[in-house]
Structure formats: structure tokens, C-alpha cells
């Protein structure tokens, strides 16, 4: 970091926003005039080849907050909490920075520990009672997921989340929380600076996540005549084969999606304009990215589950920082690198755990976008699995473990429609991928691997996993090295057969709470 580095950082995640639906990446409908103007600023860099470490929220955010790959931090649907890791916010707070996290994503809560270390946090997700994500029920969830024989019971709890999803998909609970997130961020910045503190603000904007119920003014512009309650808003119905979606309905769904993105853009522009008007813009580094994207029928899938296609893991990334050449870059970047970039910007080394049994990743400038030797991983003193597997820095890595929540919902939709889901399918598979700018290789446990020449086949239509393409062979070798570095390749997904007799292993308080909710007798 040089003395020119900004004193503050604003980190924005556009939840579930595809790269190819944004103006800075060539999208023609005028959904993002604010981001278009932001991208055109002289100190803003647009990254074409950013790779997410997973295709969904929890593990991606855990990686952003720890600098670890998912197999290291362990936060996924089988273990939905971040444990044993000192977070970015904890390291920044310890150095005197004011820190805040505002979101309406149900995974970004004290329950999952993703908000650990933030001085102020608020989650605007209000579908379920406040005590649902805390106290005895949270203890019950943890007990069940920690035990191999209790996962069927854990899956019963997931059904409550399904009810919440159905509620939102009906349109009954569709008011956007994004304006409140922006307002709260402004208040935090005012309070921090009134106290003389430099600050780090993290916001997650959820509008582009299913279900799509955009504000009327944006729906009228981008999805005229579309009734959001009449189109398919439950991806599991389509993926299970319980519902077909024709071309006209996909067009309607995509119009609603565009409208949600336009609303996000307007609100984000409101925050950017406020920072300019209050003379804070020049002293604020800004990161804007998506945690993952979304599929709208491509590859026969809807949503962001059961695959690692580029619509999900090649995400938008725009960074405003005076030490990064403002331009368009086509080299591989991993979202994991943003942890180090924030530390470098604020001159914090980290690496000191807040508790004796925790890991804390120290600043590694080979992963900082500010460094001259960015992604020159041969210079890393203690290489992580990605650095060890791709010494030249040209590949990113993605991990996707057993998707408990999505799988349970999928099974319920399939069962209701009389559809049998084959166990040897992508739905029951774990996946890992290596991705470079020219090629990608995806290891899949229950079906054939997938591999694509992204430079020649960006839509990933021709699977080259069984061929002898040299780019694919090199990419597979990088994946194999990564797998070795994280403890070995996945073989088969876990067997989830359990019996309710195992409830005896839970404490009385947890079992009584489950009985109150109707999940056990």
C-alpha cells in the first residue's frame, strides 16, 4: 500500500447478478446507467475474468471474509456457519476501523457467524421469526449437521425454509429492502466519521435473487405487462421436471430480472452520489462484484444450483482504487483476492487470530490487486491450495459441496409431481473446477466430468472432458493439484440415510424446540 491509498472501503455485493446482464459488460438494455458511469471513471477497473469460489452465497461470503477456499473455512449447507476463522471485519476492527455489514440475505446473519467482527450489522431478511436463526434451534441445526446420522432431521428443518421461499415467491413479501440498506450505510458512514474513524462498509443487495418482484416503475420499463405472480418463481419446480417454461415465459422472467437489476443500480447510484456530494468519494475505495450469477434455462437449469457453468462462477467485478490502472483487464482474478486487497488498501496485515483455536489468513500481497507481483504465486511464502496448484496465477478454483437446501426442495417438488430423480445425476453430486481464461475443467462425482474451451466455446456447449485438447489437459492437471492440496478429490456424495432414533443424541432443549415447530414428534 502507498500513501495514496484511500482511508475507507465500500464493498458491495450484487447478489445473484450475472456479468452479461450489466452495461459495463456489453448488455444493451439500459439497466445500469449508474454502473456504466462508474465503470467509465478513470480510476475504476473492470475485470472480465473474475472467478467466484462457489456458486452460492454462504461459502462465497465466507471466502470473502476469511481469504480461504470453501474446503478450508467449511461453511456450506451441511455446516451452515463460519467457525474457527478470524474474519476480515475482526482484523479491521482490532486495528481501529469502524466496520458495518448490511444485507437482506438470510445467510449473512449472526447465526452463520458471517457477521462476526462487524461493529454494526443488520439483516433485513424478515420472513421467519427472529429466534429461528438463533438459540436452541440454531443449536439443533448444528447438532444435526455435525453428526453423520442426523442429516435427515436437518433436512426436515430445511422444509421451513421452503415455506419461506414459497411465501416470497407468491409476491406477498416482495418489498425491496435495498433502500433501507443504503440508508443504513449512509448513517453508519456519518457516525464513523463523526467519531473520527476510518471505515469499512460491506453491503449485500438482494433484489436480483429469486423471486423477482421489482418495484412497479422498473417492472413497467423492463417487463411491461408481466404479472410477477404468474411466472415460475421457483427454480426447483423447473429443475425437478415438475414445470415447463416456454420461450415467452423465459422472456418475462428475464425482464423481471432486468428490472430488479435496474432498481439495484438506481439505489447504488444514490449511495455513490451521496459519497460524492459529501466529499467522501475520493477517499473511498469501492469494490462492486457479484457473489454468483443465475441460470435462466441455459444448460436446462434455472437458478444457481447443481452446476459450475460460467453464468454462475464468472462474475462481474469492478474496483475503484487509484493504485489499480483504470481500464479493462482480462487476466484471471479470484474473489478470494479481494480479502487481501482490502487489507492492503487499509494497511492491515491480519494473521493474528482473535481466539486460540482459530485460523487467521495474513495479508499476502501476491493476492492483492494493488501489488506489482499480483498472482505471481511462486513468490508466496506460505502458498494456499490455489497458489500451490496454479503457481503462474492463471487459474481460479471453485468448490461446490452437497447442496442440502436445494436438494431437499428439489425432492419435494419432484415427489409432488410424481417425478423420480436419479441418484446418479448432477443433483446429488459434489463438484470442483479449475478455470482459466482459455479453459475450464469440472470434476463431478456422480456423472461425467465437464470441460470446455472457453476461448472457443464461451457458452460451454461442447464437453471436451474425454478428449485430448492440450488446454483442457493442462486445466485438469491444475485441478488435480488443487484437489491434492485440499486433501484429495471428492469421490461420492455423503450417504444421508438416518433414523429418528438418533434424536436421542440431542439435548432436551433443542428437541423441545423442534417439537414446538412440528418437525419431530
Unreliable stretches: 127-136, 154-170, 496-503, 513-521
How many DSSP helices? 16
Describe the largest sheet: 8 strands, mixed
Report strand order across the widest sheet.
4-3-5-1-6-9-2-10
Q: Could you give the order of the helices and strands?
A: EHEHHHEEHHHEHHHEEEHEEHHEHEEEHH
Task: Kindly report how far apart the N and C termini lie.
Answer: 59 Å
Helix content: 25-40%
Shape: globular
- How much of the sequence lies in strands comes to 5-15%
Helix vs. strand class: alpha/beta
Q: Mean pLDDT, as a whole number? A: 87
Number of strands: 14
Quaternary status of these chains? Answer: single chain
Radius of gyration equals 22 Å
Amino acid at each position: 500500500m502507498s500513501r495514496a491509498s484511500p482511508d475507507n472501503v465500500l464493498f458491495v455485493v450484487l447478489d445473484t447478478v450475472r456479468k452479461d446482464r450489466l452495461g459495463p459488460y456489453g448488455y444493451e438494455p439500459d439497466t445500469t446507467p449508474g454502473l456504466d458511469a462508474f465503470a467509465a471513471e478513470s480510476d475504476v477497473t473492470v475485470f472480465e475474468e473474475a472467478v467466484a469460489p462457489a456458486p452460492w452465497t454462504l461459502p462465497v461470503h465466507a471466502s470473502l471474509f476469511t481469504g480461504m477456499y470453501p474446503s478450508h473455512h467449511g461453511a456450506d449447507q451441511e455446516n451452515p456457519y463460519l467457525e474457527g476463522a478470524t474474519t476480515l471485519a475482526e482484523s479491521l476492527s482490532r486495528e481501529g476501523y469502524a466496520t458495518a455489514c448490511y444485507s437482506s440475505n438470510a445467510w449473512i446473519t449472526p447465526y452463520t457467524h458471517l457477521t462476526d467482527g462487524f461493529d454494526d450489522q443488520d439483516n433485513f431478511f424478515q420472513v421467519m421469526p427472529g429466534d429461528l436463526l438463533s438459540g436452541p434451534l440454531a443449536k439443533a441445526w448444528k447438532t444435526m449437521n455435525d453428526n453423520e446420522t442426523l442429516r435427515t432431521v436437518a433436512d426436515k428443518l430445511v422444509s421451513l425454509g421452503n415455506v419461506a421461499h414459497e411465501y416470497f415467491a407468491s409476491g406477498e413479501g416482495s418489498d425491496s429492502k435495498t433502500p433501507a440498506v443504503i440508508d443504513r450505510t449512509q448513517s453508519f458512514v456519518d457516525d464513523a466519521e463523526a467519531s473520527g474513524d476510518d471505515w469499512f462498509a460491506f453491503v449485500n443487495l438482494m433484489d436480483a435473487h429469486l423471486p423477482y418482484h421489482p418495484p412497479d416503475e422498473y417492472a413497467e420499463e423492463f417487463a411491461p405487462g408481466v404479472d410477477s405472480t404468474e411466472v415460475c418463481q421457483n427454480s426447483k419446480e423447473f429443475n425437478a421436471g415438475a414445470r415447463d417454461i416456454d420461450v415467452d415465459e423465459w422472456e418475462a422472467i428475464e425482464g423481471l430480472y432486468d428490472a430488479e437489476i435496474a432498481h439495484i443500480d438506481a439505489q447504488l447510484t444514490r449511495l455513490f452520489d451521496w459519497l460524492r456530494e459529501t466529499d467522501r468519494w475520493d477517499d473511498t475505495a469501492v469494490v462492486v462484484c457479484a457473489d454468483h450469477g443465475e441460470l435462466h434455462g441455459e444448460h436446462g437449469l434455472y437458478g444457481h444450483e447443481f452446476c459450475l457453468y460460467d453464468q454462475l462462477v464468472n462474475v462481474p467485478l469492478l474496483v475503484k482504487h487509484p493504485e489499480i490502472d483504470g481500464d479493462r483487464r482480462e487476466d484471471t482474478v479470484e474473489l478470494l483476492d479481494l480479502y487481501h486487497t482490502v487489507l492492503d488498501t487499509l494497511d492491515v496485515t491480519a494473521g493474528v487470530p482473535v481466539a486460540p483455536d482459530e485460523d487467521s489468513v495474513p495479508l499476502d500481497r501476491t493476492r492483492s490487486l494493488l501489488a506489482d507481483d499480483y498472482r505471481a504465486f511462486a513468490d508466496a511464502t506460505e502458498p494456499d491450495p490455489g497458489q500451490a496448484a496454479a503457481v503462474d496465477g492463471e487459474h481460479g478454483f471453485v468448490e461446490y459441496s452437497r447442496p442440502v437446501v436445494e436438494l431437499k426442495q428439489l425432492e419435494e417438488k419432484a415427489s409432488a409431481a410424481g417425478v423420480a430423480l436419479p441418484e446418479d445425476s448432477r443433483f446429488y453430486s459434489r463438484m470442483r473446477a479449475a478455470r482459466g481464461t482459455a479453459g475450464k475443467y469440472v470434476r463431478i462425482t456422480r456423472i461425467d466430468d465437464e470441460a470446455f474451451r472457453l476461448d472457443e466455446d464461451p457458452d460451454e456447449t461442447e464437453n471436451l472432458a474425454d478428449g485430448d485438447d492440450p488446454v483442457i489437459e493442462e486445466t485438469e492437471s491444475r485441478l488435480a493439484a488443487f484437489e491434492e492440496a485440499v486433501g484429495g478429490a471428492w469421490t461420492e456424495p455423503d450417504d444421508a440415510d438416518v433414523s429418528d432414533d438418533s434424536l436421542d443424541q440431542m439435548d432436551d432443549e433443542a428437541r423441545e424446540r423442534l417439537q414446538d415447530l412440528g418437525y419431530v414428534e
